[in-house]
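Moderator note: this is an archived Q&A kept for reference. The question asked for a predicted structure of one protein chain; the sequence and the answer are reproduced below.
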Amino acid sequence: MNINHHMYEELSNKIFYKGFTGIINYCNQGNILYGCVISGATKGVHISYHGNTIEECINDFHEAIDFHLLPNLEEHTLSHTA
C-alpha cells in the first residue's frame, strides 16, 4: 500500500466527564490535539478544548465542562462578550 505521509490523518478517541462526552482529534499536519463535546446538556453551546498533550487536552475538557456548569454561565458569558 502506498501511503502519502503528507496526507491529513485524524485519530479520534471519546472521553467522558460529568455526563458529557467529548472527542479528541489529532492532526499530524499541525501536530495538534483538539476536540469538542459531542453529547451532554450543552444548552446549545459549542464547547471545545485543546492541548499539546493528551493530558493537557483532557484537563482542558474538564475545565471547559466545569465552566459550562457554572450556575451563572449566561451572566458570566455576557459580561465577557460585552
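Archived answer notes: The chain has two helices and four strands.
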